Amino acid sequence: MSDKDPCDRCEELMQDFLDRTLTDLEWKEAEVHLTGCEYCARRYRFEETLRRYVKLSSVERMPPSLMAKLEELRGRDATAY
Ligand SMILES: [Zn+2]
Q1: In this predicted model, which residue has the larger pLDDT, 70 or 26?
Q2: How far is the CA of 6 from the centre of ligand 1 (A)?
Q3: How far does residue 40's CA lie from ligand 1's centre (Å)?
Q4: Dihedrals φ, ψ of 59, to 5°?
């Protein structure tokens, strides 16, 4: 926890966090970070919403145009705060 940005670490854990496949220790680590870091909490909500959307629309592979749009939104979202 010294040489590494905790937000990078959190990003590493994010997908598994959403998949609920983390170990208890990793889960706790991500949860603590998300509770204290507004940036990652927002990113988590974004990823969660994205997953729900993908699931709802039953789209396995998003069209590149939509993907680009979402990336754009995410970028704006991340820099807005
Ligand atoms: Zn963070």
Answers
A1: 26
A2: 6
A3: 4
A4: -100, 120
